[in-house]
Specification:
The structure holds two protein chains of two kinds. Chain A is built from ten helices and ten strands. In chain A, the strands form two sheets. Chain A has a six-stranded mixed β-sheet, sandwiched between helices. A four-stranded antiparallel β-sheet of chain A has the order 2-1-4-5, covered by helices on one side. In chain A, helix 7 links the parallel strand 7 and strand 8. In chain A, helix 5 crosses helix 6. Chain A starts with a strand and ends with a helix. Chain B is an all-alpha fold. Chain B has a single domain, classed as MetI-like fold (Orthogonal Bundle), CATH 1.10.3720.10. Chain B is built from ten helices and no strands. The chains are: A alpha/beta, B mainly alpha. Chains A and B meet through helix 2, strand 6 and helix 4 of A and helix 7 and helix 8 of B.
């Protein structure tokens, strides 16, 4: 269970990243966080494994505070949380299996991992994880030779090899085409259902969110403006909240154009 | 149609700056020549000597080859050992100089400053200092080359580290890796090829540098330059030059080929 207690984050430049968030995410949920660009989705997600620090409040995972964790405790907490990134974040020059095995470093001594002496069980675990996302035949290929969708599946395999209890995915499909988007989201859903891994995903496409989520949380300017089951997350409701409907995948091209304009400003 | 409104044409930039720069460079050249007493008349006076030296250099004394082969091998050995020492010491220096590895400016600025300092000392001077400390022979030469290559390899490597993709750094943090695992799994695979390439590059430089270290008594083929030049045995000098040239060319060629395949 992930619990946010009065969590706020103010960036050094004064921007409010998160505003007094109180949320409980139960074990096994598939939660999708939606919101416009800059709504604080990424900050929300990254504060769970402390890739971002919060400025006040506390986040606990199964009752243990991650906010207060230090050193080894923090590393163990992170070990139990798999993370999937928009840009996959694989070491492109390393093989697929080495990338997946890198999820195991938290379980072994420094010396052992540095020498690359992962036990046989770990290698099997990694291969099984790759098999689960249907990419085991690429195990000894260099990661930069895979397509975007394949690379994202490798990063899912890494989270699986971690034997994570929670998977966080930050815009996992933002740089993928519709077909691979479906494959990757299906993989995440299957893992959530088969293994009961709590999954929290950031998306900015409301249609994909509805298709996969068991619960949707809407953020705006760092505040929770919607929290409920998929059935309640209707277009009307979101138009009301955001003043316009959230993007759907079909609007992809338009969206890309818009954000390109925004970034050039 | 082609008539452009006169008022719309911007004023052409003044060329004064170019003339001024040209005059400044001329002044600088003249000043340098004047202060160092180098004149054309001296150049012309010395010119015939060049031919007499060249004349004595040809034909090279091929028999001398046997005498210097051991010294040449020593030179290469010095370069190998010096480069290895430098390559090892350079690793911590490179990591502590990279701003994406060590967040504190209090660490990486002093380390970088130290590296810059090391690189300003010519290896010949380093060798001379080590000869004074350890006595004559290849050992001071090896140390000099080691320190010299630390400067080069660490500098180039830390720049490579600063240029790596930060995505894997983030994912290794998220996986719960400690600092050493973090470096081994996200930094090393990204910079290893560059590092090896810089080590080879530094080896090329060290072979050339090692060839003259003997001038200050730090071992290698340089001692034979000193000896033969001193006795005006120019036919032997040309043998050494040709041999050195050959060795340097071969090593450069192999190293360049290897580096091409690495990157």
């Amino acid at each position: 269970m992930i619990e946010f207690k009065n969590v706020s984050k103010v960036y050094p430049n004064g921007t409010q990243g998160l505003k007094n968030i109180n949320i409980k995410i139960e074990k096994g949920e598939f939660v999708v966080i939606v919101g416009l660009s800059g709504a604080g989705k990424s900050t929300f997600l990254r504060s769970i494994n402390r890739l971002h620090e919060i400025t006040s409040g506390e986040i606990t995972i199964d009752g243990k505070s991650i906010t207060k964790a230090k050193g080894k405790d923090l590393r163990i907490a992170r070990r139990n949380i798999g993370m999937i990134f928009q840009n996959f974040n694989l070491v492109k020059r390393s093989t697929v299996i080495r990338n997946v095995l890198s999820g195991r470093v938290g379980y072994h001594s420094t010396l052992r991992t540095v020498l690359g002496l992962f036990p046989k069980e770990d290698v099997n675990l990694a291969l099984n994880a790759l098999d689960r996302v249907n990419i085991v035949e690429k195990a000894y290929t260099r990661s930069d030779q895979l397509s975007g969708g394949q690379q994202q599946r490798v990063s899912i395999a890494r989270a699986l090899a971690q034997e994570a209890k929670i998977i966080l995915a930050d815009e996992p499909v933002a740089s993928l085409d519709p077909l691979t988007t479906k494959q990757v989201m299906d993989d995440l859903q299957k893992i959530n259902q088969d293994l009961g891994i709590t999954t929290v995903v950031n998306l900015h496409f409301i249609d994909i969110a509805r298709q996969y989520a068991t619960r949707i949380i809407g953020l705006q300017a760092g505040e929770v403006v919607f929290d409920g089951p998929v059935e309640e997350a209707t277009d009307e409701r979101f138009s009301e909240i955001y003043g316009r409907p959230l993007e759907t995948r079909e609007e992809d091209e338009v969206e890309v154009g818009e954000s390109a304009n925004e970034s050039s400003k | 149609m082609n008539q452009v409104n006169e008022q719309k044409i911007p004023k052409a930039p003044s060329k004064l700056k170019h003339y001024f720069t040209f005059i400044l460079i001329l002044l600088l050249l003249w000043g340098s020549a004047y202060q160092t007493d180098s004149t054309f008349s001296e150049l012309i006076e010395g010119f015939p000597n060049m031919f007499s030296v060249l004349d004595q250099m040809i034909p090279p004394n091929w028999a001398y080859f046997d005498n210097i082969i051991e010294a040449m091998l020593d030179t290469i050995r010095m370069a190998v050992l010096g480069t290895t020492i430098g390559a090892i010491i350079a690793i911590p220096f490179a990591i502590f100089s990279a701003s994406n590895m060590i967040k504190s400016t209090w660490v990486y600025y002093p380390v970088r400053f130290l590296l810059n300092l090391v690189r300003t000392i010519p290896e010949l001077l380093l060798a001379a200092i080590f000869v004074a400390i350890f006595g004559l022979g290849p050992l001071p030469g090896i140390f000099a080359l080691g320190i010299f290559s630390t400067g080069i390899i660490a500098k180039l490597t830390y720049e490579a580290i600063e240029g790596i993709d930060k995505g894997p750094l983030e994912s290794m943090t998220a996986v719960g890796a400690n600092k050493i695992q973090w470096i081994m799994f996200s930094v090393v695979p990204q910079v290893a090829a560059y590092y090896v390439s810089y080590v080879l590059y530094s080896f090329e430089i060290n072979v050339r540098a090692a060839a003259i270290l003997g001038l200050v008594g730090a071992g290698g083929i340089g001692e034979y330059y000193d000896r033969t030049l001193g006795f005006l045995e120019y036919d032997k000098v040309s043998t050494i030059i040709i041999f050195t040239l050959l060795v340097v060319l071969i090593i450069d060629y192999i190293s360049t080929k290897l580096r091409e395949n690495l990157l």
